[in-house]
């Protein structure tokens, strides 16, 4: 029997962290969680090896956690979320804290692992590209010019540069995935995707009046199960991973989503108010498909059906 690999998920108590936990094979891996907002009640359904309640900014606690095991993989998902109103708004409201968590905390982690043989997979974001209108090409590749238009995007660009520094100077095995908007059951923060969650909840409660704010502009989304599967495929990939991957996504909008939800239930009390949001360029994700054999499983129709089955 093969020895189990050790995986540490930083930010494992969050939305994507929970999705990854549901997808991981606990027969193959020993899973541990590091999270400043650690809630063991959320994790009681999983056989967790170690719990570490700390931030990546707490150097001594981080050092002790990293010494606890020989970590084969670290999945880094931690980001500054402020008051739970979304990552973009949190960074805009308190840029210094966003810099500390998204950049300095990440750098602390890499610096402590620079002489270790640990594979690191971490979450960047499509926001590093900035507004779609600034790009002439139909889709952007991993090496396209980065031009973030938000403070959150700036922190993710800086984190990518930090990762590239450690890859170049210490030959570290670090791979990022630039995620679009991740949606699905269990999403509880009030960012751009919150309106989609509200829509799902409203559909199954047709007698309750909901007023939902959603952008009228195009949205690029991926279902939580697909997003989690990408990380699993990266862990299981037999090829040497690149330093950065654009993520697969589905382009949609609020009206298309509402029409799909309404095929299952109709809520006449549902009121959607539109505002103008940011549209990021469509990412070319051929590199991801080639290196990890990932393919999108959840179309809008399929993800809506699956989502509603879990509410």
Number of structural units classed as domains: 1
Instruction: Provide the CATH topology.
Output: Rossmann fold
Name the beta content range.
Answer: 15-25%
CATH superfamily: NAD(P)-binding Rossmann-like Domain
Quantity of strands, as a count: 12
Strand order of the largest sheet: 3-2-1-4-5-6-10
Helix fraction bin: 25-40%
The biggest sheet, with number of strands, parallel, antiparallel or mixed sense and barrel status, is: 7 strands, parallel
Number of DSSP helical runs = 10
The global form is: globular
- Rg measurement, Å: 19 Å
Helix-strand layout with pairing:
Layout: E1 5-10, H1 15-23, E2 29-34, E3 48-52, H2 59-67, E4 73-76, H3 87-93, H4 95-112, E5 119-125, H5 151-170, E6 173-179, E7 181-183, H6 194-203, E8 210-215, E9 219-223, H7 224-236, E10 244-246, E11 250-252, H8 254-262, E12 270-275, H9 286-292, H10 300-308
Parallel strand pairs: 1-2, 1-4, 2-3, 4-5, 5-6, 6-10, 7-9, 8-12
Antiparallel strand pairs: 9-11
Helix pairs in contact: 1-7, 3-4, 3-5, 4-5, 6-8
Brief digest:
The protein has 311 residues and is α/β, with parallel strands linked by helices.
Keywords:
globular; 10 helices; 311 residues; three-stranded mixed β-sheet; seven-stranded parallel β-sheet; Rossmann fold; 20% strand
What does this structure look like?
This protein is of the alpha/beta class and 311 residues long. The chain has a single domain, classed as NAD(P)-binding Rossmann-like Domain (Rossmann fold, 3-Layer(aba) Sandwich), CATH 3.40.50. It is 36% helix and 20% strand. The chain has helices spanning 15-23, 59-67, 87-93, 95-112, 151-170, 194-203, 224-236, 254-262, 286-292, 300-308, and strands at residues 5-10, 29-34, 48-52, 73-76, 119-125, 173-179, 181-183, 210-215, 219-223, 244-246, 250-252, 270-275. The strands form 3 sheets. Strands 3-2-1-4-5-6-10 form a 7-stranded parallel sheet, sandwiched between helices. The protein has a 3-stranded mixed sheet with strand order 7-9-11. Helix 1 (15-23) crosses helix 7, helix 3 packs across helix 4 (95-112) and helix 4 runs parallel beside helix 5. The chain is globular. The termini are far apart. The mean pLDDT is 91.
